[in-house]
TrEMBL record:
PANTHER family: HYDROLASE, PTHR39420. It holds the Pfam family Zincin_2. InterPro entries: CHP03883_F420-assoc, Zinicin_2, Zinicin_2_N. This is Coenzyme F420 biosynthesis associated uncharacterized protein. SUPFAM superfamilies: Metalloproteases ('zincins'), catalytic domain (SSF55486).
Length: 374
């Protein structure tokens, strides 16, 4: 069942076909961008470790620099690693039935896999034009056992496109992006349980879905309503439309941890200091304007895919880190990485004092101020 639930090859083909072309650069300039991004990602590693006090990886591999089709292929590989074992589990747990029973079921499954493959490809094509970089948590296993469990990837054409659009200093902007992504690498390599925790919550979320035909039809209707609502300018999004009550609870935990890691990345990239990225304030204000802008269609797609929710996560998470570091210092904040129980809940992200009272202990009036505060 697993391999044919989504036609992954079709997802890659569709995504690649729908891609918008990147900025026009010559071969020599492209080589120069790749070399500088590798060099700056290495430089960012040291800054992140020194600033956060987190151990990180002993000898991290240089960042992998990709173009837009390369980003799509990497993400499809990651989806397969996560989803195919889950689909096997769902198939075994539910037995023959809705999608796998008899010849009719095989036809439904074959058609469904193509439709889903095309949908995944279309979403990836949209995202591939926006993403500047990411830390890929889920990679196909390396038979030699030597490869790291994750990989830092930077999407060169998108970085060049944004720095041209914003008219910012190219070296500063590239280092600024690297600081954010290297923070993610440090989080997931320096906190031994974090990757497994995120994967476990994702697995629970997907396994909590109910494949009862009646429920599926209700969910499809909910999703259609969400599309219409978003097109009309409402608040509907597809993420809300497809959750069971159990999934909502799990999603709350996932949202809290992702808000923390995204906000921590945003905080570090801005707080490392003007001596490292001299034009950081100009970059942040122009980049923020770009995040909030876009055409009506662009805003609709962002809302449907939950990208607006992610933007809110950056802001909420960054506020949480800023407040906690300001009151208990970086050492006090780093207690957040002690264990899954130390992670803030959704409510604690919104009200950091609750987390500090529960985890960080008594607050010191002479704690060092958060970066950016007097």
């Amino acid at each position: 069942m697993s391999a044919s639930m989504i036609d992954w090859n079709l997802a890659v083909q569709t995504g690649t076909r729908l891609l918008r072309p990147g900025p026009q650069v010559g071969h020599a300039e492209a080589r120069e961008v790749v070399e500088q991004l590798r060099e700056l990602s290495k430089l960012a590693q040291g800054h992140v470790r020194e600033f956060t006090g987190m151990p990180g990886e002993e000898d991290p591999a240089p960042a992998t620099i990709v173009d837009r089709p390369g980003w799509i292929r990497a993400n499809v590989d990651g989806f397969r690693v996560v989803l195919e074992p889950l689909m096997e589990q769902m198939s075994e747990r539910r037995g023959p039935g809705l999608l796998s029973g008899g010849a009719g079921g095989v036809v439904v499954q074959a058609v469904g896999s193509r439709v889903t493959g095309m949908q995944v490809g279309a979403i990836l094509a949209y995202m591939a034009g926006r993403v500047l970089g990411q830390y890929e948590l889920f990679l196909p296993p390396d038979p030699s056992g030597r490869a790291p469990t994750g990989r830092l990837t930077l999407v060169a054409p998108n970085i060049v496109h944004v720095e041209q659009e914003l008219s910012v200093d190219t070296r500063d902007f590239r280092l600024w992006v690297c600081l954010h992504e290297e923070t993610h690498r440090t989080q997931f390599t320096g906190v031994p349980w974090l990757r497994e925790y995120v994967q476990d919550q994702m697995t629970r979320f997907l396994l909590a879905s109910d494949l009862d035909p009646g429920m599926m039809l209700d969910r499809i209707r909910d999703a259609a309503d969400a599309v219409m609502d978003a097109v009309r300018g409402g608040e509907g999004n597809l993420i809300d439309a497809i959750q069971s009550p159990e999934q909502r609870e799990i999603l709350d935990r996932l949202t809290a941890v992702m808000t923390l890691v995204e906000g921590h990345g945003d905080y570090v990239m801005d707080a490392v200091g003007p001596e490292v990225v001299p034009s950081v304030q100009q970059i942040r204000s122009r980049f923020q304007g770009r995040r909030e802008g876009g055409t009506r269609l662009d805003k609709t797609i962002r809302r449907l895919l939950g990208i607006d929710l992610k933007m809110k996560q950056y802001a909420e998470g960054s506020r949480f880190v800023h407040r906690v570091v300001g009151e208990v210092g970086m050492t006090g904040f780093n207690k957040v990485w002690d264990s899954p129980e130390s992670l803030p809940t959704h409510a604690e992200i919104k009200e950091p004092a609750l987390w500090m009272d529960r985890v960080a202990g008594p607050r010191s009036l002479d704690a060092p101020p958060a970066a950016g505060e007097a």
